[in-house]
Amino acid sequence: MSPEPYVRGQAFALAALLVATAVLDSGAAALACAIVTGLGAWILRARYRGDLLASNVVEVPPHRERLDLIVAGDVRTAVATGGVAGGLLLGFDVHRPDAGVAPITPLFLTIVAAGVLLSSLVDWYVILPRISGLLGARPCRDAERDHPRFPKTWRETTRWWYIHRIIAALILRFGLSYAIARTVVHHISLPHGTSVVTSAATTLFASYLWASGLAVWEAGHLTLILGRTVRRHHVTRTARSVTILGRKLPLPFLPKRREIGALVAREYVYDVSLESVQLVPVAQRERKIPLDENGNVVYERDPRKLPVRDAQASEPEPTRAYHGCKNVCAGINWYCIENPRCFAPK
């Protein structure tokens, strides 16, 4: 996740939707959304500043400081734009133009955009300062050290990384589904139209809902904790079939049969998401730090992806934790604060 262009794009999308809500729906609703989003962003930024003080950070690296200014400025611009639009239209009984959408649709899209933006700000202000090493030892250097403020441990950090992304995913899926349903019903009359269309639209996001459910389970029963060295089992899946007249026919409506094989090489937990956990093999980096032709550390950009549904088919490596970056940065984590491009898009 990088402020350029992702967070900036999310902020501008929110600004446009706040204006649309004020013009097409309600100035009061747009103003309320702008205030709630601005308050949430302010709390997260204040929390970040408090974390810096608690961790005795004297100077923020220039590349992080520049992006901090971009994030704060873009959020203020979006909130101010929506607040001004909502405030101007709040006290006026203006004619609402017909844009072909249900009046409440822009409001739900605005709520979706606000939820996604706030989730990105949790990443930027809470998660990334910890895993990059800005607030102290990064996971690969000290997997057991506690931070002075919550989340204090890497287990808690990993869990809340899942939780805020699950919340954002649910807001996105259900918000979009309801917005689509309201607009469809606005044009087509159906018995119990909103419920029917919402259910139909939600099924379009069934894979995301399934991924969210798996992530909820993993967040509650963490096996792969950020910064830990693990050994995972090799997992294979084969389609279930039935033999009819001597021919094997697949049964696509049944889940594939899962077979757990032998343990694979030791790997470092690099990143987590709703769909997969990213892992990096550690043996080579423990022996020799990879350098480019100019002598600079080569940072990992293409970690292996393990589906979250297979995360439980792993086990911690308690006796042989990764030790490749105890004294120097081994480039195992792209977000390492010693990397001037640590927040650039990968």
Average of the residue pLDDT scores:
83
Instruction: Give Rg in angstroms.
Output: 24 Å
What is the CA-CA span between the terminal residues? 8 Å
**Uncertain regions spanning at least 5 consecutive residues:** none
What proportion strand? 5-15%
Strand order of the largest sheet: 6-5-4-1-7
Strand segment count:
7
N-to-C order of helices and strands? HHHHHHHEEEEEHEE
Major beta sheet summary = 5 strands, antiparallel
Number of helices: 8
Fraction in helix: 40-55%
Structurally, how many domains make up the residues?
A: 2
Shape: flat
Which structural category do the helix and sheet elements fall into?
A: alpha+beta
Short description:
The protein is α+β, with helices and mostly antiparallel strands and 346 residues long. The protein is 49% helix and 14% strand. The protein is flat, with a radius of gyration of 24 Å.
Descriptive account of the structure:
The protein has 346 residues and is of the alpha+beta class. The chain folds into 2 domains: 3-220, no CATH class; 229-316, no CATH class. 49% of the residues lie in helices and 14% in strands. The chain has 8 helices and 7 strands; from the N terminus they run αααααααβββββαββ. The strands form 2 sheets. A 5-stranded antiparallel sheet has the order 6-5-4-1-7. Helix 1 (3-24) packs antiparallel against helix 4, helix 5 crosses helix 6 and helix 5 packs antiparallel against helix 7 (206-220). The mean pLDDT is 83.
